[in-house]
């Protein structure tokens, strides 16, 4: 009850920020980001677009990978209209395709740019069953496996950048408290929903994909829960029921600037130097689920992920 009251009134936690803090407020104390290059997935709308806008305001060079280049160009134009000196690069990326991830990384590396920040923000929630071109359930392929490979392939560049610049690299996985809704054998359930449509449950599949992001425990990375916010994530279920649900939970909803705050805080705040493997909510460290904090499950998932991405490796990519 006390935590709910703190959330509703926006009481500040140990970080000095709380649920009502905005992305602009939490980055007010960050160092000048002009030497920094950041890749932000899912930046064409919602939380990702606000994260990109605020980091651009603080001076960061942005790389915006997107499935829709038109949408990414529109995001770029909006940011440039507000901050004309921003450097923004739009690139093609479909996270549900491992080939597309490999092409993106190869193209990014050809630009010879540094990489200081990687924000894995893109997310998909679907009530309809789907399989990616690689034969993996679509929600898991987009929310986790694509980001897993993207992070894995970009790590070398981030390590090199940190070594030459002296600026610590940061990886931020945007997760969800819904990850705690999943229980059971992750690998078995993934196999079931990949092979059998009748076993598919949209909410459980989304929970699995977000739980997977919680467990990259052997990578220098932090996870964040942005809070409850209405974004385009629910676009394939817009209508009366969706509107009613959001109306009933309106007191718990964050604005998009508030929802982007934790990602920006974890990506930029000086207090988080050398902090990794943590889970943040409302710009403060929080507890994750028992399954999400299991090192044994992390190792199991990591091994399974390595097998999945190597299975679809193509020569030259």
TrEMBL record:
It holds the Pfam family adh_short. The keyword Secreted does not apply. Keywords: Oxidoreductase. It comes from the Eukaryota. Gene3D superfamilies: NAD(P)-binding Rossmann-like Domain (3.40.50.720). Belongs to the short-chain dehydrogenases/reductases (SDR) family. This is Short-chain dehydrogenase TIC 32, chloroplastic-like. It comes from Rehmannia glutinosa (Chinese foxglove).
């Amino acid at each position: 009850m006390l935590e709910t009251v703190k959330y509703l009134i926006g009481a500040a936690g140990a970080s000095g920020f709380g649920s009502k803090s905005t992305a602009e407020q939490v980055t007010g104390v960050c160092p000048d980001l002009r030497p920094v290059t950041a890749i932000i997935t899912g930046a064409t709308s919602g939380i990702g677009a606000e994260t990109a806008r605020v980091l651009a305001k603080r001076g960061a060079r942005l790389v915006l990978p997107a499935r829709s280049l038109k949408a990414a160009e529109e995001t770029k134009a909006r940011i440039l209209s507000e901050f004309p000196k921003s450097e923004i690069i739009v690139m093609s990326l479909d996270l549900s395709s491992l080939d597309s991830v490999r092409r993106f990384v190869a193209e990014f590396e050809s630009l010879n740019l540094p990489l200081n920040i990687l924000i894995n923000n893109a997310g998909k929630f679907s009530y309809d069953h789907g399989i990616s071109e690689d034969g993996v359930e679509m929600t898991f392929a987009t929310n986790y496996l694509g980001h897993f490979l993207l992070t894995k392939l970009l790590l070398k560049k981030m390590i090199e950048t940190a070594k030459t610049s002296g600026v610590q690299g940061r990886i931020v996985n945007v997760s969800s408290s819904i990850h705690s809704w999943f229980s059971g054998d992750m690998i078995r359930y993934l196999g079931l929903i990949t092979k059998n449509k009748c076993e598919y449950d949209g909410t459980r599949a989304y929970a699995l994909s977000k739980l997977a992001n919680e467990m990259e425990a052997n990578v220098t990375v932090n996870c964040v829960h942005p809070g409850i916010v209405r974004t385009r994530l629910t676009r394939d279920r817009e209508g009366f029921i969706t509107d009613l649900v959001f109306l009933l939970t309106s007191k718990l909803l964050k604005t998009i600037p508030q929802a982007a705050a934790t990602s920006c805080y974890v990506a930029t705040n000086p207090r988080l130097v050398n902090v990794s493997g943590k889970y943040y909510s409302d710009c403060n460290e929080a507890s994750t689920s028992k399954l999400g904090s299991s090192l044994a499950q992390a190792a199991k998932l990591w091994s399974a992920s390595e097998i999945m991405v190597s299975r679809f490796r193509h020569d030259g990519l």
